[in-house]
Design goal:
CATH class: Alpha Beta
Bound molecules: (2S)-2-hydroxybutanedioic acid
Radius of gyration: 23 Å
Helix content: 40-55%
Number of strands: 11
Number of domains: 1
Order of helices and strands: HEHEHEHHEEEHEHEHEEHHEHHH
């Protein structure tokens, strides 16, 4: 026979109430990233928060942490896997430990422009890569553009030999490492939060980034020259923890996926605008000279780094590289 003392009854009732209270708690989604708010990724994260909280009121709360304020880029992937954050959007250069084929996005001079990138990401290979890490607990929800990278340094870089011997900051990517080695420069891996100081103190002499990252981190204040090389891509994959995502109530997950698709369209429509705005602000600051390359000069850079493709062809897959090249011609 089941006998309950008064004390046990009070306990059971309060546990039940606590359970009800918990059921009413919103699902907290921490979205951590390393850039400033007025960049393509920073704006995308804020828009995702706004739409998610508007459309799922009381059900979902999104906390956005910008500028490496919660986790820097050395730690954010681990934090996602441990469930300490639920959304991050690392640059595509930061996935090599999880998916070798994603290295394709780092190959120098692969895409002619951002429209070609867009076509490739929306095509079968781009879409396949979004789900290529599910066995490791990572689900890709979409690609966000930042844009094409420019080279910066304290000396003018017009032809490849100008970069010889300089120390360049690189993201944690073997492809980018090899890219600078092909120029006979010295790559130094460094987290994004450390770049400004690295450039300021001369630990590194140069870097590569889209205009929005250069301007928002004030890198132009410690770099006298930017060469508009458009030599490579810096885009993002927005990712979540697969277990967390699959464990969401189905209606919430469907709505969040819809919101993510809308935000992706917005970010990708405005990223180029933001980069052009920031390029203009850099020019207006008068602190940095922007160097435009002639076709012949740009071809020299391309020819010098192109052997890097072959070095990674096996890991990436020749067919995938062909598909990316084909996206230039459409
Ligand atoms: C970098 O480390 O340079 C970029 O990946 C930073 C970012 O997230 O745009």
């Amino acid at each position: 026979m089941l006998k309950m003392t008064a004390k046990a009854l009070v306990c059971a009732v309060s546990l039940g109430l606590a359970g009800l209270a918990n059921a009413a708690e919103p699902i907290v989604i921490k979205f951590s990233h390393v850039v400033a708010e007025h960049t393509p990724k920073g704006q995308g994260a804020l828009l995702f928060k706004k739409l998610a909280e508007e459309r799922l009121p009381g059900q979902v709360k999104v906390e956005v942490y910008s500028n490496s304020s919660l986790f820097g880029d050395g730690k954010e992937m681990e934090a996602l896997l441990l469930g300490d954050v639920q959304l991050i959007a690392p640059s595509l250069a930061k996935f090599e430990h999880y998916s070798k084929p994603i290295q394709i996005f780092d190959l120098p001079f692969l895409f002619d422009d951002i429209q070609a990138v867009d076509r490739f990401q929306k095509g079968p290979v781009g879409q396949e890569l979004l789900t290529s890490m599910e066995d490791k607990g990572i689900t890709g929800l979409g690609y966000w553009h930042n844009g094409l990278k420019q080279l910066s340094a304290n000396k003018p870089l017009r032809v490849p030999k100008d970069a010889r011997g300089l120390k360049f900051r690189v993201q944690a990517s073997a492809v980018l490492d090899e890219q600078f080695k092909a120029l006979r420069a010295n790559p130094r891996k460094m987290s994004f939060a450390e770049v400004y100081q690295g450039l300021q103190t001369g630990v590194v002499n140069g870097a590569e980034n889209p205009y929005s990252n250069i301007y928002s981190q004030k890198m132009h204040e410690v770099q006298k020259y930017i060469t508009e090389s458009n030599h490579g891509l810096l885009d993002y994959m927005v990712i979540t923890n697969t277990k967390f995502w699959n464990g969401l109530p189905a209606d919430v997950r469907t709505e969040l996926a819809k919101i993510m698709d809308e935000v992706t369209v917005e970010v990708n429509q405005h990223a180029e605008e933001i980069n052009q705005r920031d390029k203009q602000s850099i020019i207006d600051s008068g602190k940095t000279e922007i160097i435009t390359l002639t076709k012949e000069q740009r071809d020299q850079w391309r020819d010098q780094v192109r052997p890097v493709w072959k070095m990674f062809e096996k890991e990436i897959g020749a067919e995938r590289i062909k598909a990316a090249e084909a996206s230039n011609q459409e």
